[in-house]
Protein backbone atom coordinates (compact mmCIF):
# COMPACT_ATOMS: atom_id res chain seq x y z
CA UNK A 1 0.00 0.00 0.00
CA UNK A 2 2.80 2.43 0.83
CA UNK A 3 4.55 1.67 -2.46
CA UNK A 4 1.37 2.32 -4.41
CA UNK A 5 0.90 5.63 -2.57
CA UNK A 6 4.45 6.74 -3.47
CA UNK A 7 3.87 5.72 -7.10
CA UNK A 8 0.69 7.80 -7.31
CA UNK A 9 2.45 10.81 -5.78
CA UNK A 10 5.31 10.62 -8.25
CA UNK A 11 3.25 9.84 -11.35
CA UNK A 12 -0.32 11.10 -10.84
CA UNK A 13 -1.32 10.53 -14.42
CA UNK A 14 0.01 6.96 -14.57
CA UNK A 15 -2.67 4.29 -14.29
CA UNK A 16 -0.53 1.60 -12.68
CA UNK A 17 -0.03 -0.25 -9.38
CA UNK A 18 2.59 -2.41 -7.76
CA UNK A 19 1.76 -6.02 -6.92
CA UNK A 20 3.99 -8.65 -5.29
CA UNK A 21 3.63 -12.41 -5.11
CA UNK A 22 5.67 -15.32 -3.76
CA UNK A 23 5.83 -18.78 -5.25
CA UNK A 24 7.84 -21.08 -2.90
CA UNK A 25 8.91 -24.53 -3.95
CA UNK A 26 6.45 -27.37 -3.20
CA UNK A 27 6.85 -29.03 0.21
CA UNK A 28 9.01 -32.09 0.15
CA UNK A 29 7.81 -35.49 1.35
CA UNK A 30 9.78 -35.20 4.59
CA UNK A 31 8.30 -31.76 5.25
CA UNK A 32 4.78 -33.10 4.77
CA UNK A 33 5.50 -35.99 7.15
CA UNK A 34 6.92 -33.60 9.73
CA UNK A 35 3.90 -31.30 9.43
CA UNK A 36 1.58 -34.28 9.91
CA UNK A 37 3.56 -35.34 12.98
CA UNK A 38 3.32 -31.87 14.48
CA UNK A 39 -0.41 -31.91 13.82
CA UNK A 40 -0.62 -35.32 15.48
CA UNK A 41 1.36 -34.03 18.47
CA UNK A 42 -1.12 -31.19 18.88
CA UNK A 43 -3.99 -33.66 18.70
CA UNK A 44 -2.24 -35.90 21.26
CA UNK A 45 -1.97 -33.02 23.71
CA UNK A 46 -5.62 -32.09 23.20
CA UNK A 47 -6.80 -35.69 23.65
CA UNK A 48 -4.69 -36.16 26.76
CA UNK A 49 -6.08 -33.02 28.37
CA UNK A 50 -9.64 -34.12 27.51
CA UNK A 51 -9.15 -37.65 28.83
CA UNK A 52 -7.73 -36.30 32.10
CA UNK A 53 -11.21 -35.13 33.04
CA UNK A 54 -12.89 -38.46 32.41
CA UNK A 55 -11.79 -40.23 35.60
CA UNK A 56 -11.91 -37.16 37.84
CA UNK A 57 -15.53 -36.52 36.94
CA UNK A 58 -15.72 -33.10 35.34
CA UNK A 59 -19.12 -32.82 33.62
CA UNK A 60 -18.73 -32.52 29.86
CA UNK A 61 -21.01 -33.66 27.01
CA UNK A 62 -20.07 -37.13 25.82
CA UNK A 63 -17.90 -37.92 28.82
CA UNK A 64 -18.87 -39.86 31.89
CA UNK A 65 -18.53 -39.07 35.58
CA UNK A 66 -16.56 -41.80 37.30
CA UNK A 67 -14.94 -40.27 40.32
CA UNK A 68 -17.84 -38.07 41.45
CA UNK A 69 -20.25 -41.00 41.25
CA UNK A 70 -17.92 -43.31 43.16
CA UNK A 71 -17.22 -40.61 45.72
CA UNK A 72 -20.90 -39.79 46.26
CA UNK A 73 -21.77 -43.47 46.66
CA UNK A 74 -19.13 -43.82 49.36
CA UNK A 75 -19.93 -40.47 50.99
CA UNK A 76 -23.67 -41.09 51.20
CA UNK A 77 -23.19 -44.53 52.79
CA UNK A 78 -24.67 -46.32 49.78
CA UNK A 79 -21.59 -48.46 49.45
CA UNK A 80 -21.65 -49.33 53.15
CA UNK A 81 -25.37 -50.09 52.92
CA UNK A 82 -24.61 -52.63 50.20
CA UNK A 83 -21.75 -54.11 52.20
CA UNK A 84 -24.01 -54.57 55.24
CA UNK A 85 -26.63 -56.17 53.00
CA UNK A 86 -24.16 -58.84 51.92
CA UNK A 87 -22.30 -57.55 48.86
CA UNK A 88 -18.60 -58.50 48.88
CA UNK A 89 -15.86 -56.01 48.08
CA UNK A 90 -14.92 -57.97 44.96
CA UNK A 91 -18.49 -58.04 43.68
CA UNK A 92 -19.02 -54.36 44.38
CA UNK A 93 -15.88 -53.11 42.63
CA UNK A 94 -16.20 -55.56 39.73
CA UNK A 95 -19.73 -54.34 39.11
CA UNK A 96 -18.59 -50.72 39.37
CA UNK A 97 -15.73 -51.39 36.96
CA UNK A 98 -17.88 -53.13 34.34
CA UNK A 99 -20.55 -50.42 34.49
CA UNK A 100 -18.04 -47.58 34.14
CA UNK A 101 -16.23 -49.30 31.30
CA UNK A 102 -19.46 -49.85 29.38
CA UNK A 103 -20.39 -46.22 29.85
CA UNK A 104 -16.93 -45.29 28.51
CA UNK A 105 -17.49 -47.04 25.18
CA UNK A 106 -19.45 -44.10 23.69
CA UNK A 107 -16.61 -41.81 24.76
CA UNK A 108 -14.12 -43.91 22.80
CA UNK A 109 -16.43 -43.95 19.78
CA UNK A 110 -16.82 -40.15 19.95
CA UNK A 111 -13.06 -39.60 20.09
CA UNK A 112 -12.46 -41.87 17.09
CA UNK A 113 -15.26 -40.14 15.18
CA UNK A 114 -13.76 -36.71 15.87
CA UNK A 115 -10.38 -37.90 14.59
CA UNK A 116 -12.07 -38.95 11.33
CA UNK A 117 -14.15 -35.77 11.08
CA UNK A 118 -11.11 -33.51 11.43
CA UNK A 119 -8.96 -35.87 9.37
CA UNK A 120 -6.11 -36.17 11.89
CA UNK A 121 -3.89 -38.22 9.57
CA UNK A 122 -1.43 -39.13 12.35
CA UNK A 123 -4.08 -41.42 13.88
CA UNK A 124 -5.63 -42.80 10.68
CA UNK A 125 -4.69 -45.64 8.40
CA UNK A 126 -2.22 -48.07 9.94
CA UNK A 127 -2.09 -45.90 13.11
CA UNK A 128 -5.84 -46.17 13.82
CA UNK A 129 -5.76 -49.61 15.44
CA UNK A 130 -2.96 -48.83 17.97
CA UNK A 131 -4.61 -45.45 18.60
CA UNK A 132 -7.94 -47.07 19.55
CA UNK A 133 -6.21 -49.77 21.58
CA UNK A 134 -4.27 -47.11 23.52
CA UNK A 135 -7.51 -45.47 24.64
CA UNK A 136 -9.15 -48.79 25.58
CA UNK A 137 -6.11 -49.98 27.52
CA UNK A 138 -5.95 -46.61 29.26
CA UNK A 139 -9.56 -46.92 30.43
CA UNK A 140 -8.92 -50.43 31.75
CA UNK A 141 -6.01 -49.17 33.86
CA UNK A 142 -7.19 -45.71 34.93
CA UNK A 143 -10.52 -46.91 36.40
CA UNK A 144 -9.01 -48.98 39.25
CA UNK A 145 -6.24 -46.38 39.60
CA UNK A 146 -8.88 -43.70 40.23
CA UNK A 147 -10.87 -45.94 42.56
CA UNK A 148 -7.72 -46.45 44.60
CA UNK A 149 -6.92 -42.75 44.80
CA UNK A 150 -10.52 -41.95 45.78
CA UNK A 151 -9.90 -43.64 49.13
CA UNK A 152 -7.41 -40.88 50.05
CA UNK A 153 -9.91 -38.01 49.98
CA UNK A 154 -12.86 -36.95 52.10
CA UNK A 155 -13.96 -33.99 49.98
CA UNK A 156 -15.01 -34.19 46.30
CA UNK A 157 -13.84 -30.63 45.60
CA UNK A 158 -10.33 -31.28 46.86
CA UNK A 159 -10.26 -34.64 45.11
CA UNK A 160 -11.25 -33.21 41.73
CA UNK A 161 -8.71 -30.39 41.84
CA UNK A 162 -5.91 -32.59 43.16
CA UNK A 163 -6.45 -35.47 40.73
CA UNK A 164 -6.88 -33.20 37.72
CA UNK A 165 -3.55 -31.49 38.48
CA UNK A 166 -1.87 -34.83 39.20
CA UNK A 167 -3.14 -36.45 35.99
CA UNK A 168 -2.08 -33.50 33.84
CA UNK A 169 1.38 -33.61 35.43
CA UNK A 170 1.77 -37.38 35.08
CA UNK A 171 0.19 -37.55 31.66
CA UNK A 172 0.98 -34.46 29.67
CA UNK A 173 3.99 -32.72 31.20
CA UNK A 174 6.12 -35.78 31.92
CA UNK A 175 5.40 -37.44 28.59
CA UNK A 176 6.44 -34.36 26.58
CA UNK A 177 9.56 -33.81 28.70
CA UNK A 178 10.59 -37.46 28.44
CA UNK A 179 9.96 -37.56 24.69
CA UNK A 180 12.11 -34.49 24.12
CA UNK A 181 14.93 -35.76 26.32
CA UNK A 182 14.88 -39.22 24.77
CA UNK A 183 14.48 -38.52 21.06
CA UNK A 184 15.61 -35.05 19.98
CA UNK A 185 19.39 -35.32 20.14
CA UNK A 186 22.30 -37.13 21.72
CA UNK A 187 22.81 -34.22 24.15
CA UNK A 188 19.25 -34.44 25.50
CA UNK A 189 19.62 -38.21 25.91
CA UNK A 190 22.68 -37.60 28.05
CA UNK A 191 20.72 -35.11 30.15
CA UNK A 192 17.96 -37.69 30.62
CA UNK A 193 20.44 -40.39 31.62
CA UNK A 194 22.11 -38.03 34.09
CA UNK A 195 18.78 -37.11 35.68
CA UNK A 196 17.84 -40.77 35.87
CA UNK A 197 21.09 -41.66 37.63
CA UNK A 198 20.71 -38.81 40.10
CA UNK A 199 17.10 -39.64 40.97
CA UNK A 200 17.32 -43.43 41.01
CA UNK A 201 20.92 -44.18 42.01
CA UNK A 202 19.98 -44.76 45.65
CA UNK A 203 17.09 -47.09 44.84
CA UNK A 204 17.55 -48.81 41.49
CA UNK A 205 20.67 -50.10 39.84
CA UNK A 206 19.65 -50.87 36.28
CA UNK A 207 17.01 -48.24 35.62
CA UNK A 208 18.44 -45.51 33.46
CA UNK A 209 15.38 -43.94 31.99
CA UNK A 210 12.78 -41.91 33.77
CA UNK A 211 10.05 -43.19 31.45
CA UNK A 212 10.25 -46.68 32.99
CA UNK A 213 9.27 -45.20 36.33
CA UNK A 214 6.69 -42.81 34.90
CA UNK A 215 4.86 -45.71 33.21
CA UNK A 216 3.39 -46.56 36.61
CA UNK A 217 0.87 -43.83 35.71
CA UNK A 218 -1.85 -44.79 33.17
CA UNK A 219 -2.01 -41.14 32.09
CA UNK A 220 1.68 -41.16 31.18
CA UNK A 221 1.32 -44.41 29.22
CA UNK A 222 -1.54 -42.97 27.20
CA UNK A 223 0.09 -39.62 26.44
CA UNK A 224 3.50 -41.10 25.61
CA UNK A 225 1.92 -43.75 23.37
CA UNK A 226 -0.08 -41.13 21.43
CA UNK A 227 3.02 -38.95 20.98
CA UNK A 228 5.07 -41.86 19.65
CA UNK A 229 2.27 -42.87 17.27
CA UNK A 230 2.03 -39.33 15.90
CA UNK A 231 5.82 -39.10 15.34
CA UNK A 232 6.28 -42.61 13.96
CA UNK A 233 6.28 -41.61 10.24
CA UNK A 234 8.88 -38.92 10.90
CA UNK A 235 11.20 -40.28 13.61
CA UNK A 236 10.60 -44.07 13.62
CA UNK A 237 10.26 -44.95 9.96
CA UNK A 238 11.97 -48.32 10.30
CA UNK A 239 9.60 -49.52 13.06
CA UNK A 240 6.00 -50.65 12.88
CA UNK A 241 3.31 -49.21 15.12
CA UNK A 242 3.24 -52.42 17.14
CA UNK A 243 6.93 -52.70 18.02
CA UNK A 244 7.79 -52.93 21.70
CA UNK A 245 9.84 -49.72 21.72
CA UNK A 246 7.04 -47.72 20.11
CA UNK A 247 3.71 -48.71 21.67
CA UNK A 248 4.42 -52.16 23.10
CA UNK A 249 5.89 -50.86 26.37
CA UNK A 250 2.85 -48.75 27.11
CA UNK A 251 0.45 -51.58 26.23
CA UNK A 252 2.26 -54.01 28.51
CA UNK A 253 2.41 -51.45 31.32
CA UNK A 254 -1.32 -50.64 31.03
CA UNK A 255 -2.25 -54.33 30.99
CA UNK A 256 -0.21 -54.97 34.14
CA UNK A 257 -1.59 -51.86 35.86
CA UNK A 258 -5.20 -52.76 35.14
CA UNK A 259 -4.73 -55.98 37.11
CA UNK A 260 -2.29 -54.65 39.69
CA UNK A 261 -4.28 -51.58 40.72
CA UNK A 262 -7.51 -53.55 40.93
CA UNK A 263 -5.83 -56.19 43.10
CA UNK A 264 -4.33 -53.45 45.26
CA UNK A 265 -7.78 -51.86 45.63
CA UNK A 266 -9.28 -55.13 46.85
CA UNK A 267 -6.31 -55.67 49.16
CA UNK A 268 -6.83 -52.26 50.76
CA UNK A 269 -10.54 -52.94 51.21
CA UNK A 270 -10.03 -56.37 52.75
CA UNK A 271 -7.18 -55.20 55.00
CA UNK A 272 -9.47 -52.46 56.31
CA UNK A 273 -11.73 -55.24 57.62
CA UNK A 274 -9.13 -56.42 60.15
CA UNK A 275 -9.10 -54.08 63.18
CA UNK A 276 -5.93 -55.51 64.70
CA UNK A 277 -4.01 -55.03 61.47
CA UNK A 278 -5.36 -51.50 61.03
CA UNK A 279 -4.15 -50.69 64.54
CA UNK A 280 -0.67 -52.01 63.76
CA UNK A 281 -0.58 -49.91 60.59
CA UNK A 282 -1.48 -46.80 62.59
CA UNK A 283 -4.93 -46.17 61.11
CA UNK A 284 -6.68 -46.85 64.42
CA UNK A 285 -5.34 -45.10 67.52
CA UNK A 286 -5.98 -45.48 71.22
CA UNK A 287 -4.90 -43.60 74.33
CA UNK A 288 -4.74 -44.62 77.99
CA UNK A 289 -8.07 -44.51 79.75
CA UNK A 290 -8.64 -41.71 82.21
CA UNK A 291 -9.70 -42.41 85.78
CA UNK A 292 -13.23 -43.81 85.69
CA UNK A 293 -15.89 -41.54 87.01
CA UNK A 294 -18.47 -42.76 89.47
CA UNK A 295 -21.25 -44.57 87.61
CA UNK A 296 -24.94 -44.66 88.33
CA UNK A 297 -26.06 -47.74 90.19
CA UNK A 298 -27.92 -49.30 87.24
CA UNK A 299 -25.06 -48.53 84.86
CA UNK A 300 -22.53 -50.14 87.22
CA UNK A 301 -24.72 -53.22 87.60
CA UNK A 302 -25.11 -53.58 83.83
CA UNK A 303 -21.36 -53.27 83.35
CA UNK A 304 -20.74 -55.89 86.03
CA UNK A 305 -23.25 -58.26 84.41
CA UNK A 306 -21.67 -57.97 80.97
CA UNK A 307 -18.16 -58.36 82.40
CA UNK A 308 -19.24 -61.61 84.02
CA UNK A 309 -20.33 -62.96 80.63
CA UNK A 310 -16.95 -62.18 79.02
CA UNK A 311 -14.10 -64.69 79.28
CA UNK A 312 -10.41 -63.88 79.65
CA UNK A 313 -9.98 -64.66 75.95
CA UNK A 314 -12.53 -61.90 75.15
CA UNK A 315 -15.20 -64.36 74.06
CA UNK A 316 -18.67 -64.87 75.48
CA UNK A 317 -19.47 -67.44 78.12
CA UNK A 318 -21.59 -70.41 76.97
CA UNK A 319 -25.25 -69.52 77.14
CA UNK A 320 -24.65 -65.76 77.11
CA UNK A 321 -26.66 -65.35 73.92
CA UNK A 322 -29.76 -66.99 75.40
CA UNK A 323 -30.70 -63.71 77.07
CA UNK A 324 -28.90 -60.97 75.18
CA UNK A 325 -28.68 -60.67 71.41
CA UNK A 326 -26.20 -57.80 71.38
CA UNK A 327 -23.26 -57.57 73.79
CA UNK A 328 -21.15 -54.42 73.92
CA UNK A 329 -18.04 -54.93 76.02
CA UNK A 330 -15.85 -51.90 76.76
CA UNK A 331 -16.30 -50.42 73.31
CA UNK A 332 -14.13 -47.36 72.76
CA UNK A 333 -13.29 -45.08 69.84
CA UNK A 334 -10.57 -42.44 69.67
CA UNK A 335 -10.09 -40.10 66.70
CA UNK A 336 -7.26 -37.84 65.66
CA UNK A 337 -8.47 -34.25 65.53
CA UNK A 338 -8.23 -32.74 62.02
CA UNK A 339 -7.60 -29.19 63.27
CA UNK A 340 -4.64 -30.22 65.42
CA UNK A 341 -5.84 -28.24 68.42
CA UNK A 342 -5.98 -31.42 70.48
CA UNK A 343 -4.02 -34.63 69.90
CA UNK A 344 -7.13 -36.81 69.98
CA UNK A 345 -10.86 -36.91 70.61
CA UNK A 346 -12.65 -39.67 72.51
CA UNK A 347 -15.93 -40.27 70.67
CA UNK A 348 -17.02 -43.38 72.60
CA UNK A 349 -15.71 -44.15 76.08
CA UNK A 350 -15.88 -47.59 77.73
CA UNK A 351 -19.37 -48.68 76.69
CA UNK A 352 -20.84 -51.74 78.46
CA UNK A 353 -24.38 -53.07 78.02
CA UNK A 354 -26.43 -55.90 76.57
CA UNK A 355 -29.71 -55.88 74.67
CA UNK A 356 -32.18 -58.72 75.28
CA UNK A 357 -33.76 -60.53 72.37
CA UNK A 358 -37.03 -59.06 71.14
CA UNK A 359 -36.48 -55.65 72.73
CA UNK A 360 -36.86 -52.27 71.04
CA UNK A 361 -33.89 -50.43 72.51
CA UNK A 362 -33.71 -46.64 72.45
CA UNK A 363 -30.14 -45.32 72.37
CA UNK A 364 -30.50 -41.70 73.50
CA UNK A 365 -27.98 -38.89 73.80
CA UNK A 366 -27.21 -35.33 72.88
CA UNK A 367 -25.41 -34.47 69.66
CA UNK A 368 -21.81 -35.65 69.79
CA UNK A 369 -22.44 -38.28 72.46
CA UNK A 370 -21.14 -41.06 70.19
CA UNK A 371 -24.37 -42.70 69.02
CA UNK A 372 -23.53 -42.66 65.29
CA UNK A 373 -19.96 -43.76 66.00
CA UNK A 374 -21.25 -46.73 68.00
CA UNK A 375 -23.47 -47.73 65.09
CA UNK A 376 -20.57 -47.41 62.67
CA UNK A 377 -18.47 -49.71 64.84
CA UNK A 378 -21.24 -52.30 65.11
CA UNK A 379 -21.78 -52.36 61.33
CA UNK A 380 -18.09 -52.35 60.39
CA UNK A 381 -17.98 -48.83 58.95
CA UNK A 382 -15.21 -47.94 61.38
CA UNK A 383 -13.08 -49.94 63.80
CA UNK A 384 -13.10 -49.61 67.60
CA UNK A 385 -9.92 -48.41 69.26
CA UNK A 386 -10.47 -51.02 71.96
CA UNK A 387 -13.20 -53.23 73.33
CA UNK A 388 -15.40 -55.86 71.78
CA UNK A 389 -18.98 -56.32 70.63
CA UNK A 390 -20.98 -59.41 69.70
CA UNK A 391 -24.15 -59.89 67.64
CA UNK A 392 -25.74 -63.24 68.40
CA UNK A 393 -22.36 -64.32 69.73
CA UNK A 394 -20.52 -63.33 66.54
CA UNK A 395 -17.72 -60.78 67.17
CA UNK A 396 -17.99 -57.65 65.06
CA UNK A 397 -14.41 -58.25 63.92
CA UNK A 398 -15.88 -61.04 61.77
CA UNK A 399 -17.96 -58.68 59.65
CA UNK A 400 -18.60 -61.22 56.89
CA UNK A 401 -20.68 -63.32 59.30
CA UNK A 402 -21.95 -60.48 61.50
CA UNK A 403 -23.45 -58.58 58.57
CA UNK A 404 -25.68 -61.54 57.75
CA UNK A 405 -27.47 -60.92 61.04
CA UNK A 406 -28.20 -57.21 60.76
CA UNK A 407 -30.17 -54.66 58.79
CA UNK A 408 -28.96 -51.08 58.81
CA UNK A 409 -30.63 -47.72 58.25
CA UNK A 410 -27.93 -45.03 58.52
CA UNK A 411 -28.43 -41.56 59.92
CA UNK A 412 -28.63 -40.11 56.40
CA UNK A 413 -30.61 -41.59 53.53
CA UNK A 414 -28.49 -44.05 51.53
CA UNK A 415 -30.76 -44.30 48.50
CA UNK A 416 -30.36 -44.00 44.74
CA UNK A 417 -32.30 -41.04 43.38
CA UNK A 418 -33.06 -42.73 40.04
CA UNK A 419 -34.49 -45.95 41.50
CA UNK A 420 -38.06 -46.40 42.70
CA UNK A 421 -39.08 -47.75 46.10
CA UNK A 422 -39.95 -51.09 44.53
CA UNK A 423 -36.59 -51.28 42.72
CA UNK A 424 -34.71 -50.44 45.94
CA UNK A 425 -36.41 -53.23 47.88
CA UNK A 426 -36.03 -55.72 45.06
CA UNK A 427 -32.33 -54.83 44.72
CA UNK A 428 -31.53 -55.26 48.41
CA UNK A 429 -33.84 -58.24 48.80
CA UNK A 430 -32.05 -60.02 45.95
CA UNK A 431 -28.70 -59.27 47.58
CA UNK A 432 -29.97 -60.96 50.75
CA UNK A 433 -31.00 -64.07 48.83
CA UNK A 434 -34.74 -63.51 48.46
CA UNK A 435 -36.43 -64.43 45.19
CA UNK A 436 -39.73 -65.20 43.61
CA UNK A 437 -42.93 -65.05 45.66
CA UNK A 438 -41.12 -64.61 48.97
CA UNK A 439 -39.38 -61.47 47.69
CA UNK A 440 -42.57 -59.98 46.28
CA UNK A 441 -44.46 -60.72 49.52
CA UNK A 442 -41.91 -58.98 51.71
CA UNK A 443 -41.77 -55.97 49.38
CA UNK A 444 -45.54 -55.59 49.47
CA UNK A 445 -45.70 -55.97 53.28
CA UNK A 446 -43.07 -53.29 53.83
CA UNK A 447 -44.58 -50.90 51.29
CA UNK A 448 -47.99 -51.24 52.96
CA UNK A 449 -46.65 -50.93 56.51
CA UNK A 450 -44.66 -47.81 55.66
CA UNK A 451 -47.40 -46.20 53.55
CA UNK A 452 -45.22 -46.23 50.44
CA UNK A 453 -47.53 -48.19 48.15
CA UNK A 454 -48.59 -45.17 46.10
CA UNK A 455 -44.93 -44.19 45.68
CA UNK A 456 -43.64 -47.63 44.71
CA UNK A 457 -43.05 -46.68 41.05
CA UNK A 458 -41.83 -43.12 41.61
CA UNK A 459 -38.14 -42.28 41.61
CA UNK A 460 -36.80 -41.93 45.14
CA UNK A 461 -35.17 -38.61 44.32
CA UNK A 462 -38.64 -37.03 44.16
CA UNK A 463 -39.67 -38.22 47.64
CA UNK A 464 -40.09 -35.96 50.64
CA UNK A 465 -37.65 -36.28 53.52
CA UNK A 466 -40.07 -38.40 55.52
CA UNK A 467 -40.70 -40.84 52.68
CA UNK A 468 -36.98 -41.18 52.08
CA UNK A 469 -36.58 -42.10 55.77
CA UNK A 470 -39.34 -44.68 55.46
CA UNK A 471 -37.72 -46.19 52.38
CA UNK A 472 -34.38 -46.40 54.23
CA UNK A 473 -36.14 -48.22 57.08
CA UNK A 474 -37.75 -50.64 54.62
CA UNK A 475 -34.34 -51.39 53.13
CA UNK A 476 -33.04 -52.21 56.61
CA UNK A 477 -35.97 -54.58 57.29
CA UNK A 478 -36.03 -56.45 53.97
CA UNK A 479 -34.90 -60.06 54.38
CA UNK A 480 -36.06 -60.34 58.03
CA UNK A 481 -32.65 -59.72 59.66
CA UNK A 482 -32.54 -60.72 63.35
CA UNK A 483 -31.14 -57.31 64.34
CA UNK A 484 -32.05 -53.98 62.78
CA UNK A 485 -30.19 -50.74 63.47
CA UNK A 486 -32.32 -47.67 62.82
CA UNK A 487 -30.87 -44.18 62.94
CA UNK A 488 -33.78 -41.79 63.48
CA UNK A 489 -34.64 -38.62 65.28
CA UNK A 490 -36.61 -39.42 68.40
CA UNK A 491 -39.81 -37.61 67.46
CA UNK A 492 -39.83 -39.22 64.01
CA UNK A 493 -39.67 -42.68 65.53
CA UNK A 494 -42.35 -42.02 68.11
CA UNK A 495 -44.79 -40.54 65.60
CA UNK A 496 -44.41 -43.14 62.89
CA UNK A 497 -42.34 -46.23 63.51
CA UNK A 498 -44.01 -47.62 66.59
CA UNK A 499 -47.01 -48.79 64.58
CA UNK A 500 -44.75 -49.80 61.68
CA UNK A 501 -42.69 -52.10 63.88
CA UNK A 502 -45.86 -53.56 65.32
CA UNK A 503 -47.14 -54.22 61.79
CA UNK A 504 -43.91 -55.93 60.80
CA UNK A 505 -43.15 -57.72 64.06
CA UNK A 506 -44.12 -61.02 62.47
CA UNK A 507 -41.20 -60.58 60.10
CA UNK A 508 -38.56 -59.26 62.52
CA UNK A 509 -37.10 -61.15 65.43
CA UNK A 510 -35.36 -58.20 67.06
CA UNK A 511 -35.07 -54.49 66.52
CA UNK A 512 -32.35 -52.19 67.85
CA UNK A 513 -33.32 -48.58 67.22
CA UNK A 514 -31.05 -45.60 67.64
CA UNK A 515 -32.77 -42.23 68.10
CA UNK A 516 -31.20 -38.84 67.91
CA UNK A 517 -32.30 -36.04 70.22
CA UNK A 518 -31.96 -32.34 69.54
CA UNK A 519 -29.90 -30.23 71.87
CA UNK A 520 -32.31 -27.95 73.70
From TrEMBL:
Under the heading InterPro entries, the entry gives:
ABC2_TM, ABC_transporter-like_ATP-bd, ABCA, P-loop_NTPase
Taxonomic classification, please? Eukaryota, Sar, Rhizaria, Retaria, Foraminifera
Instruction: List the GO terms this entry assigns under cellular component, sorted alphabetically.
Output: membrane
Q: For the ABC transporter domain, which residue ranges apply?
A: 349-486
Cross-referenced Gene3D superfamilies: P-loop containing nucleotide triphosphate hydrolases
The regions listed as transmembrane in this protein's record are 45-71, 92-118, 130-152, 164-182, 219-236, 248-271, 471-491, 497-517
PANTHER family this protein is in? ATP-BINDING CASSETTE SUB-FAMILY A MEMBER 2, ATP-BINDING CASSETTE TRANSPORTER SUBFAMILY A ABCA
- List locations, semicolon-separated: Membrane
Any idea what this protein is called? Uncharacterized protein
Pfam families, A to Z: ABC2_membrane_3 (PF12698), ABC_tran (PF00005)
What topology in the membrane does the UniProt record assign?
Multi-pass membrane protein
- Ranges for domain ABC-2 type transporter transmembrane come to 47-267
| Predominant localisation class | membrane
Keyword list (alphabetical) reads: Membrane, Repeat, Transmembrane, Transmembrane helix, Transport
An example Gene Ontology molecular-function term: ATP hydrolysis activity
Amino acid sequence: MFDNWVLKRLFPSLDASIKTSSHPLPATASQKVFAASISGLTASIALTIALVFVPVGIVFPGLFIIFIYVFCVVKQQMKHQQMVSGVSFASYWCGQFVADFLVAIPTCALIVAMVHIFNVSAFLGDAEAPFILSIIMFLLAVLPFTYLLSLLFDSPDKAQASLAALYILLGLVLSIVTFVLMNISDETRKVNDTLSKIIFSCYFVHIRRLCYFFRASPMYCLAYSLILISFKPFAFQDDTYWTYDLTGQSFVALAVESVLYFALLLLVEYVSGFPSLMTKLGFTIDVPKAAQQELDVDVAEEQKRIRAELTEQNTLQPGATERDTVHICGLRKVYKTPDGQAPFKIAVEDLWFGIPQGQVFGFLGVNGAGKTTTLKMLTGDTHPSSGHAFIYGVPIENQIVARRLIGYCPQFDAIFDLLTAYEHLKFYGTIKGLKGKELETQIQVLLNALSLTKYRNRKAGTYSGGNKRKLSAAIAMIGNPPVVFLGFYFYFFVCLFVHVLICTCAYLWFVFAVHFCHNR
